[in-house]
Q: What sequence folds into this?
């Protein structure tokens, strides 16, 4: 059940029976020569929409631009400053809380967002803590690529050629969502170098085609289909555990 | 050509021949009993994707949450504070400028965003003006519902029952994008009351079902198809005029 | 009744019978070769003081610096960043609200302020909307130059040579307020070019003497006197309508 | 020479021979039973206009709202948050610097502004210091009521009944500027209590009629005339010393 | 070599041979019934001072207040909002960069700081990335309690009774630094409960004496001495690796 | 009684009998050729710890980085922007207030902090004033170097060679706290020049070795011991007066 495709009376009816919502959050940034710029937003959105459909969970609009300053050396990458993303999250959470949502589950697709989202959670809870009142909100950040089934499947499919950016897993999953965008490609070297992340100039110098440690030449729509199923199951399980408290 | 569905080499190739980009911007807010919460984001996105496809124009991810504090009395509405949206726009524009985009065309679907987007433009240009350097950027805000063809067609179809919020035009257009979401409905009164906008409590008191001055009972997928064509033509014409300077 | 020239017991007495106040808001920016830098602040202040005197309405101090980044190519122009003006308006409104003022009428003299003032209104109302309480405030932005009588008189006096910046109307009105500053002057070309506004460098390139579409050579103290009377009547009528709800 | 009453070519001509400007800064706040709410803005403005006229110094628009949170217990008092005033000062200084002004002399009328203005100066200079470049700006804050001649005259006229808020000196000076606003009044007690300042509730409890340590019953237009002369001379002397470096 | 206890000529001499600096960062928050409120600041400071002494590394002043909103239910806990800490880190880094420091090593003592510090790093690097220039800075966040030797020793000494807040390891280390503050104590239950962290009210309800999963009854000065040695060695090794690139 | 070296039950016990706390606040900045970079933090911390010990007053962690942009021309100096320090003070005060502290006494060691701390006090009190509620807090800023006994002793010891930055008094006091850091030194000229402060480049040009008006060659551990005693007595006296109201 997508919020964007619902009417307010439908949301009102949903709130009469539930206080939880999934908010996909991603990034718009380069994902190597054959990965989509929207990969990190498409993945959590794709899983959240499927899970929401299957289990009748409301899914908020995807926050599709994240903290990706280190990718700005590659055309098409967009970033928010961390303080901007904190402000966005404060507003989105306050809006949802206004309507009675209490259990906010952020499904994330981008490692670079994790720190800022957790900082935002502390900022949000901190208002209550400083005021000496109890926060009515429960906030959870989950990364789809760290789900139990997804991790197992990813290891099975790609082993240590998964890498950490522009991975065959995430690229496969986007191709499952958008099969017409699948761009099988041979890479040289097959597996990209690894290393730490700093600013955009440093990133481009270390990782000249954008990949980190990955072999996206292994990506396929078929793998994407399996990852999709694994991801949806991970999400439904973890969301249920979250609601159960 | 959607940025999210492109690879960075494709964006690089695009930038070799063009410096323009369309950024759809909308809102997530109630649109009356049978209008989708995502209406104001869906409309500009739908038009931008079609126009981008037709003419090879790059379309950035939709900024789907806007300034909608006055709708918070209705479940599902989300808002950014104006200062938050200004920060978001500063970051998105700075990211695009970093890559060499020069002509940024924001296609807007929500009247409540106009003031804040224009304030953001002044904030962005002002950095250059205060520094005493020329801004390399050209920024334009266009509202799809004010296009020449769209206005004419809207008048033809709905006359003075168009209204100003949850209009049959915008609802028809979303139904063209998502026909399975079409919810024909009879309204009482057929045409909603009109008036000024302040805060959320005041809004809900004045406009109890969320509509302002409109008769969304007139919406139809067929009307949406015609509005879509008119809107795409308006957009392509205005975008070309913008690029021409 | 000017707030600056009142004592607090006088304001207390005023509040016992009224909850409305007029806040003139303008700009400090070039107004062409013979227009005063303070034009956009002088005009609403002049009208507000006269109307306040005539009808016993309290007039707050003029906010004389606005959003004018595009004029910074001309010596003497000052600007606030839009986010700064929003903060100023938040504070001024909060201060007035603290005393029991409820109906705040901003009389504006500068088109470049409109977007930011409206964004500030959304920011202010939004605090209440997000908190789920009703805003006690009514906020209105009116532009003196768009008043019914002023527009009619302006058309009668200057027709299509009125233009949009450094207009003969506004310059005449400032000369009525400060007759010793009247600088009749012949212009070449008589009517300035028109066009869109971006940053300061672009503005100076397009509009080399600062005017946009106007013929301030037509300005006169006599015209100013008539515009003053029209403007005061427009203001009193619109303010009464605002109070009436 | 008032900036508001000049044209941009006049400012351009001024900048060809000078880089200094006086910026009056005050407050809008209660000044006891017979003092004007605008006292702290009127005083520096009155002196700056006279000095500017006498010596051909450019005077910027008065910043008439300052940091006056402690006066909010009295109707009509307005405040900016200190962070807001810092932002305003950053923008005004940046605007002036843009045009080539280098020596910015702030003439202040309100003790409560001093800390924030000095903090703003540190914020402004700090940008250059952190960037490792030399600041082109010279910034000075002067309080008219601390001028040598003014202090001597004040002591002569009112001795220890001058006090520190709603003083007979400042009230006399405003009456010299606005003789029609003179409200001679007998006070009981003649001299108000003294003490420290915290928030608004505390202020009103300690100083029930708004005065601190003062006897404004002694104020007169005649005293104002003498204080005006003393203040203008102080200002011209100090401004010249400032320019001389 | 502590920055606070150096003169500027000594720092200048240091910069002639090195560009690295250690910045201890901690928190001021409850650490259970017998743990010091300053534990998270004392630990990294203690290790950094020892390592700095041993190897001639400059150590900046400890940032002793961190993000600890969840501890505010216990007297004495202090917090910064995440956005405040980001601003502090921006300023400290900019100051150090101004002098030519290039390799900034933050030694952290508080898990709750990690997200915000990493967000700050993205904010700082992002300025360069958005400007299209290379960042001259290398930034590293290391947590002393995750060092290889410390972890091994901690497991050896306390096994699974180490827990995650108010651990016997950190308490032992503070007692090594301040032996007169050692407060051996028996706990009931010996090992505290575990769980997730949200706001302060929730924290106090779940963890009534402040501990999470730990058995600080096991803490001792002797253990602290061994942890100190392990921590210093970890730090020197990791710092050398950081400098080596 | 140092907060950092207390447990939360000890703070709880303290709050049962007291609502006051001392917060040392200083700066990290050059103090001439033989003064410690940490001088302005060490001095108030040293006095506060001694006074706290003597009289059982709680002492919060030292805020050791202040507003010192003008010292950035000398290696090792650190600064916060004034707006950053205001945010820090808002958070620290809010945290202390949350626990029931009501009387917050800031003992300052750096003249450059005074304006910003006072601005922060207005910002903090202003929240209550704007909300129309009474502030529960009492805030005081005291500068140790302006204490009655300290001033008298300083005059006795150093007369007019005390100066205003890198003074023999403050350097002596730091040497009393850290006798191993005493660096007696002969200066040429013995007494440094004096003048006003602007940005860092200007400062270094005017005051080439960092001192202003002082003769730190006169500093000694013995003088520091006497100043320490005077400072502690000043502090205890003033703190008691503050509590007494």
A:
């Amino acid at each position: 059940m997508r919020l964007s495709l619902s009417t307010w009376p439908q949301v009102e009816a949903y709130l009469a029976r539930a206080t939880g919502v999934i908010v996909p959050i991603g990034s718009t940034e380069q994902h190597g020569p054959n990965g989509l710029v929207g990969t990190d937003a498409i993945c959590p959105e794709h899983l959240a929409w499927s899970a929401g459909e299957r289990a009748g969970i409301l899914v908020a609009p995807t926050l599709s631009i994240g903290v990706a300053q280190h990718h700005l050396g590659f055309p098409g990458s967009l970033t928010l400053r961390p303080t901007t993303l904190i402000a966005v999250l404060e507003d989105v959470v306050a809006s949802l809380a206004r309507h009675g949502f209490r259990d906010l589950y952020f499904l994330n697709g981008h490692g670079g967002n994790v720190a800022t989202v957790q900082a935002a959670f502390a900022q949000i809870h901190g208002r209550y803590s400083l005021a000496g009142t109890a926060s009515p909100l429960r906030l959870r950040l989950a990364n789809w690529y760290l789900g139990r089934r997804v991790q197992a499947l990813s290891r099975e499919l790609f082993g240590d050629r998964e890498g950490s950016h522009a991975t065959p897993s995430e690229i496969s999953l986007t191709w499952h969502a958008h099969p017409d965008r699948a761009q099988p490609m041979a890479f040289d070297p097959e597996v990209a170098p690894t290393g730490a992340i700093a600013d955009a100039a440093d990133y481009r110098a270390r990782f000249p085609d954008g990949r980190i440690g990955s072999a996206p030449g292994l990506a396929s729509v078929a793998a994407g289909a399996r990852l999709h199923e694994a991801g949806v199951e991970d999400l439904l399980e973890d969301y249920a555990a979250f609601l159960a408290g």
User: Anything to note?
Assistant: Chain D has one domain: 3-244. Chain D touches chain C through 54 residues (CB under 8 Å). Residues 221-244 of chain D form the longest helix (24 residues).
